[in-house]
């Protein structure tokens, strides 16, 4: 029997999960909302490191792992690579191509939080789209700045921080309205790739606003790598229906 473990938490993963029948497993780390419209089994929580994942693959008779986690979930991707090698289970991965700067873009690259802080020092109204990372620094905001932080879940802000809980996709009109309301003068972003959250870059470009882009982590190899969910879903359907 073929049984797939889909490592998810992204829109790409959800698109693949919606095509999986009941015997397969969609695994989420536990952040965000759990989809309720799936036929496959939904598993929430960690595996207990590489050894725990190896045990899960063997105990659950998994015959294929599909890594469709976020491009910045590097630890999970590394654990999947190592566990699949130890359990002798093939590994596929969905790796969205990174965004590339276009004419008119003003991108500055940062490799960690310290470099992000240095890059935004000259600005006053940054928009953070890093997920929850900026929430850990709400008490470190300089008096000269007011932060707008967009993340999936509601969180209290403070006198110098506004929290926007929103889930993409985001369109140009909505991003323009946010930039206007919050008076954004710099954007801090992960280079996630894909179209769902790309509109903020287009608005920054048209307004001449700088973008501080967090460097993508290096990810391990896989037996097959797909650029998008549709290609992975089609290949998976073929794999599941093979003689």
UniProtKB/TrEMBL annotation:
EC number(s) recorded for this UniProt protein: 1.3.1.-, 1.3.1.54
InterPro entries documented for this protein: Precorrin-6x_reduct (IPR003723)
Coiled-coil ranges from the UniProt annotation: none
Pfam short name (any one): CbiJ
Gene Ontology molecular functions: precorrin-6A reductase activity
First-tier enzyme category under EC: oxidoreductase
GO terms under biological process: cobalamin biosynthetic process
Extent of the signal sequence: none
Pathways involved: Cofactor biosynthesis; adenosylcobalamin biosynthesis
Keyword terms: Cobalamin biosynthesis, Oxidoreductase
UniProt cross-references to NCBIfam families, sorted A to Z: PRK08057.1-2, PRK08057.1-3
Alphabetized PANTHER family for the sequence: COBALT-PRECORRIN-6A REDUCTASE (PTHR36925)
Name of the protein in its database record: Cobalt-precorrin-6X reductase
